[in-house]
Amino acid sequence: MPNSNENSPLVVLGAGVMGTAIAALAVGHGHPVTLIDTSVEARAAAPDTVALHLRTARLMGALPHDRPPGELTVEDALNAIAAVTAVIEAVTEDPKRKAEVLADLASAARPGTLLISNTSGVPIDELADAVPRPEDLVGVHFMNPAYVIRTVEVVLGPRSGEAAAESTRELLSGLGRRGIVVGDGAGFVTSRLLHRMLNDAIAVVHEGRATPETVDALMRDCIGHRTGPLATADLIGLDNLADSLRVMHERTGDPALRPSELLLDKVRQGLLGRKSGRGFYDYQETMQ
Description:
GO terms for molecular function: NAD+ binding; oxidoreductase activity, acting on the CH-OH group of donors, NAD or NADP as acceptor. Pathway: Lipid metabolism; butanoate metabolism. The protein has about 290 residues and is an alpha/beta fold. It folds into 2 domains: about 10-180, Rossmann fold, CATH 3.40.50; about 190-280, N-(1-d-carboxylethyl)-l-norvaline Dehydrogenase, domain 2 (Orthogonal Bundle). About 45% of the residues lie in helices and about 10% in strands. The protein is built from 11 helices and 8 strands. It has an 8-stranded mixed sheet with strand order 3-2-1-4-5-6-7-8, sandwiched between helices. β2 (about 35), α2 and β3 form a beta-alpha-beta unit. The protein starts with 9 loop residues before the first strand and ends with a helix.
């Protein structure tokens, strides 16, 4: 498998919240990045979104100051895939959609190209059924915002190859990320633990026992949770949280992972958190 470090070109598929943040992380470390999305609106917004991420990351000291940024290219097709050593899929947390996208990527990429699925909960071995060379597929769960949080969850499925695992280690090291390898399975470690807590916090609000502000204050000041669970849910995106919980609930049968009705109501109303301007909190002033 080719070396995926040393400013090699990358492809990121999906120009949503995570895709643009991952693209900014890679560009900020000097990698040329081709960001692919079929949505005209997403492609039009992507350059400004990535530029905003880069400015924010630099202000926070989260990117190297001695490295010129890589070039960002935004496209609507898979034309660039044959020329790269690594592809990161970052579409919505829908197992069927992810499988379809990975199948397309695998058919367009050269054998041995590192295929990374950025997923918070879909088992990698399940996704591996969609690609002809499952040994090339690895899961990496980048946390949001990807250009700030330096530790990521790495998921090696039972069919992930050693060459892919090594290329993933090299790529993450070059991006200044620390990868921690965990076993495959719905929700892996972080989502299996965190999303259950977020779902419970939303249920407490739904039951009328506390406001979002009260829940977050108690969890921050008594338990030491940095942002509070409801603010964290808004940052993740309430639609993404609901999708991840649904994936885990369907695969484990654990009733604690069934998405809260309040969460589903928010999603139906389009109140998705920070990215839509409102969720459990109102962000519209900060977006202006």
